[in-house]
Amino acid sequence: MAGREGVGELQLLGAWMSPWVIRVKVALEMKGISYEYIEEDLQGKSDLLLRSNPVHKKVPVLIHDGRPVCESLVVLEYVDEAWPGTGPTLLPADPYDRATARFWATYVNNNFFQSWRSLFRSTTAEQRAEAFKNVVPQVETLERAFGECSKGKPFFGGDAVGIVDLALGSFLVWIRVVDELAGTNLLDGEKFPGLAAWAERFLAVDAVEKVMPEAGRIREHYQGFLAKLAAPAGSS
Q1: How many C-beta atoms surround the C-beta of residue 187 within 10 A?
Q2: CB 10 within 8 A of CB 78
Q3: I need a surface site. Which of 137, 145, 168, 221 has the fewest CB within 10 A?
Q4: What is the pLDDT of residues 21-34, one digit of tens each?
Q5: What is the pTM of this model?
Q6: Furthest CA-CA distance within the chain
Q7: Which domain of life is it from (predicted)?
Q8: Nearest to 24 by CA among 39, 34, 14
């Protein structure tokens, strides 16, 4: 059980290491919403998960009074709209700013992640060098987006964490662990001063500190993933 605010029956199906789940956990913590967390075995998905998300069969799934909401960005918007008077708002009130926030949150999912995923899955120095070169332009774009969205304030959401902060911030520990093992520095403070400073502020937010997995645990999980990825085909 997490959170404090009574909201009826609320369950979150997730996996502890998933950035998509982390962003929802942070949002619920920020809003002080009480929920039951159910850890899923992604190698043996539960009947509840398969029934609740029959299209993608993925986490996170937020189940509110028996009704499932799927896909992390959709879940974040649902949380914002279902409990508008609870805690901070995740999306701006102004329609243009709201559309801009949606655009950049989607960019994180569809552009940044898809490019960074190649670095995440790299097992040789050559693969890492190529993947790193390809993901840097996505970070350059996000550095410009931070200036546009923050308008000189601490977060993409302005004075407080918003949906774009949650979208990108949920990857930060993973980014640092991958950098550590790959010998890269994706959020280089000299190249990307806005994002580098933002990352430190985001990780220091109380709600983030409470739910973000420890780097050591992520590192151990990632090392196991890389070992399997690098193993010869057919090996156990």
Answers
A1: 21
A2: no
A3: 137
A4: 999 999 999 999 99
A5: 0.94
A6: 55
A7: Eukaryota
A8: 14
